Amino acid sequence: MTTQQIETANSQAYIPAASVEDEMPVRWSIPLALFACVLLAFFDKISIAALFSDTQFQQALGLSFDPTLLGLLMTAFLLSYGVSSIFLSSIGDFIEPKKLLIWMMCIWSVLMFCMGFANSYSSMMVLRIMLGIAEGPLFSLAFAIVRHSFPQRLQARATMLWLLGTPIGAAIGFPATLFILHHFGWSWTFFAMSALTIPVIFFVIYGLRHVNVTPALKAAQLAKSTPANPVLTRKQERKELYKSWQFWLICIFNIAFLTYLWGINGWLPSYLIKGKGIDLQQAGYLSSLPFIAMLLGEGIGAYVSDRLDRRAMSCFISLLGASAGLSMVLYVQGTYPVIAAMAFSTFMWGIGAPNVFALLAKVTSSRVSATAGGIFNGLGNFAGALAPVVMGVLIAASGNMDVGLLFLVIVAVTGCVVLLPLVKRY
């Protein structure tokens, strides 16, 4: 095989399914299966936040209500999640993502089951770290699968479908966890999440049955005479990725974007209960409303942006609106005005959620989708992981839960400023 033939084979092997849309059908079962996977993962992530105010849970771990230590349980998960996303996601450029996802989900189930038996703070911390490592590559694998299965004009809508697992997971997860907690105790919140994994695994297997995204391996098979060539090609693509200032600006923006998300996810139930004086049962239903608004924002944002193709502008407006809504939360009084302001904030955040991945797809090469997605998602979650514990420290130091929300407002505005150089071009 000549050098020209090898280069041609490598190029063809890396062409995503989305670029041959006319020859291959667009399968919406793919993002729906990914949605189920993300939904399940989000249950696992945020369920523990609903337990922060539970006395029996605190006693089982040998704690009282310590905002810093409780916030650290969320932060430890997110730190390990971010590290895993950065360093393990590139495996998705070599091994079939479907197989990785299935194995990951099996591990999630085992770890959640073990959490139900945790009898100390240290054991719960270790299990949370392990769960973060196991879930780390999820978003980068989902990004790579969608990128290779859908054209650019459908990227936001396809991404939106699986990203809906985030707000729906929070909208259902918080009240469901509070219901199980109230009727069965904190241990059963983990047992229920573990059991839910089994049917979801079968649904993912069915939904991803047509997926076979292994670009680097395919290139190696087509270039058997020089197996190192696709590796060299991929290294060149990675060097270009690392030198791209646009890519790093998007990563910085995503840090602010996810800091907002994890700050809200980590402290929303406790903020409603302790910061605004809403009783536990009422908080269970009210805490889901902002995430329902987030869901609506994701749907509207994906549709409008796919039609206008202004990804950076959509992201900018999204986070700016989220910071404005959160500022209103600090000043309004009364249960329903607080929830309305919070819902507006999360709605605006939702507009940007599918677009930030579509923006990433515009700026980066499809040949290193998993690597780019892993760095992007990993750095965002690694930095966002600090939000719950920083908010916990600020709340503990000031004795005022509003100070934690003010921190999120400042970070969100900073993220908007960082994205300004990309608004006109993308």
TrEMBL record:
This is MFS transporter. It is found in: Membrane. Belongs to the major facilitator superfamily. Phthalate permease family. Keywords: Membrane, Transmembrane, Transmembrane helix. It comes from Pragia fontium. It is a multi-pass membrane protein. The keyword Transmembrane applies. SUPFAM superfamilies: MFS general substrate transporter. Residues 30-426 form the Major facilitator superfamily (MFS) profile domain. The chain crosses the membrane at residues 32-53, 68-88, 100-119, 125-146, 158-180, 186-208, 245-263, 283-305, 312-332, 338-361, 373-397, 403-423. CDD domains: MFS_ExuT_GudP_like. It holds the Pfam family MFS_1. Its main location: membrane.
